[in-house]
Specification:
The protein is built from 14 helices and 11 strands. By secondary structure, the protein is an alpha+beta fold. It folds into 2 domains: about 190 residues, no CATH class; about 200 residues, no CATH class. The strands form 2 sheets. It has a 6-stranded mixed beta barrel, surrounded by 4 helices.
């Protein structure tokens, strides 16, 4: 304890130098925490967009080989009505599953009577969409009406290109799994923004029963599975795969991360940027502490000699200077934490929005205060500060007492 008191007293004695060191460390600490808070918010938003916005759910169940070969023979990889009846009870009985819902992809042409455009559609169960979407970005729209079995939802750019309005009539045309042409009249139930620039000019959502009529089938090509907690995704995948293997249907389960390549690419990019920023801040911290402690050691060489003459051991001398560095780092981190909290609050109040890459509408700019990251960065900087103080203090501790006392 007495070493800690001496460290605090020495910091106060060189207040101006200590203040600049604290400010440098505080700004470095704040920059790391603010950026980590921003990317945490981005990761959360992207995961919500994938699971609920895109309707991927946490897990997707398909027949084995679907993702690799279904474009060549889609009918072969359909889950039939009988297979769905055997799979459904297993999913419903699992305590970790809150919802499972069949999906059926369809592609073709949508027409306004004069012009036609290619569409990519998905047949969904309207009654289950509220649960899967979990009211994600209700401002974007995109909900099917269970009371209107022929009403479809059209993405906003596609509707603009064809001049479609809510309540208008349209025709959707495709080919069945047996290669026969089929077309059905549909109504425009609503227009919505997918949130993804690449799909906002070609996506439509269709009631599953309507899609089955369009493709002349009673099956589904995928099952979306929603879990209670996103953290349980990998464990639930293993558990469900084991249970489903007993019914003899060759199935495959993929997680939302495996299907959302955009999330993985963005996360990898931001992780690299974070490592780069942390490395820069770490160098600044090490240089600031080393410079401060080197000057302190030079100025206090005679004091070190006096302490050694009074019986202080070399190890205690190193510990003393390391404690000083850690106190400086702790003060800098405390200041940086205050700055981080202030920035989080100010950014939230300003209500800034921006359009990220590959998105089709504005999203709010927010910075999360991630307590776990703050703690990790805090202790990382403390260790860096202690390590930076070791080099000059270790050299000073090895100086002979006589030479230290005679130092000018």
């Amino acid at each position: 304890m007495y070493l800690l008191k001496m460290a605090a007293r020495n910091i106060r004695k060189n207040f101006r130098r200590s203040l600049f060191t604290i400010l440098a460390m505080g700004l470095g600490f704040a920059s790391i925490c603010i950026f980590s808070g921003y990317i945490h918010n981005v990761y959360t938003g992207l995961s919500e967009q994938a699971v609920h916005g895109e309707g991927l759910g946490h897990l997707t169940l398909v027949k084995k080989g679907y993702f690799e070969n279904s474009s060549l023979d889609a009918k072969k990889y359909l889950l039939t009505k009988d297979e769905l009846a055997r799979i459904g009870p297993i999913l419903s009985a699992d305590s970790g599953v809150t919802l499972w819902t069949p999906r059926l992809a369809v592609e073709g042409l949508i027409s306004n009577g004069r012009n036609s455009m290619i569409f990519m559609g998905e047949g969904i169960v309207p009654e289950q969409e509220d649960i899967l979407r979990a009211q994600y970005r209700p401002d974007r729209g995109g909900m099917l009406d269970p009371a209107k079995p022929t009403a479809i939802v059209v993405s906003s750019d596609l509707a603009r290109l064809l001049g479609l309005k809510t309540g208008a009539n349209t025709v959707v045309f495709t080919t069945t799994f047996d290669g026969e042409a089929n077309a059905l009249d549909a109504d425009i139930g609503s227009i919505y923004n997918t949130g993804i620039a690449a799909t906002n000019d070609k996506t439509i959502l269709i009631p599953l029963a309507f899609t089955r009529r369009l493709l002349d089938t009673d099956g589904a090509d995928r099952l979306r599975i929603l879990l209670r907690n996103i953290e349980d995704t990998d464990e639930a995948r293993t558990r469900l795969a084991t249970k489903l293997s007993r019914i003899g249907i060759p199935i495959e389960l993929r997680t939302w991360k495996q299907l959302s390549t955009f999330y993985v690419q963005v996360k990898d990019l931001f992780d690299m940027i974070f490592i780069f920023i942390f490395s820069i801040v770490a160098v600044i911290v090490v240089m600031s502490i080393t410079n401060t402690m080197s000057m302190t050691v030079i100025e206090r060489t005679r004091e070190i000699g006096t302490l050694r003459a009074l019986g202080m051991k070399r190890r205690q001398t190193v510990v003393l200077f390391s404690l000083e560095a850690m106190v400086l780092a702790a003060a800098g981190c405390a200041a940086g934490c205050a700055v981080t909290l202030a920035v989080c609050g100010v950014v939230s109040l300003l209500g800034i929005t921006y359009v990220p890459p590959n998105t089709s509408d504005h999203v709010p700019l927010l910075v999360d205060f991630v307590f776990g990251w703050v703690v990790v960065v805090f202790f990382s900087l403390l260790l860096l500060a202690a390590g930076a103080a070791y080099i000059p203090s270790a050299g000073a501790s090895r100086t002979r007492i006589v030479d230290a006392l005679g130092h000018v």
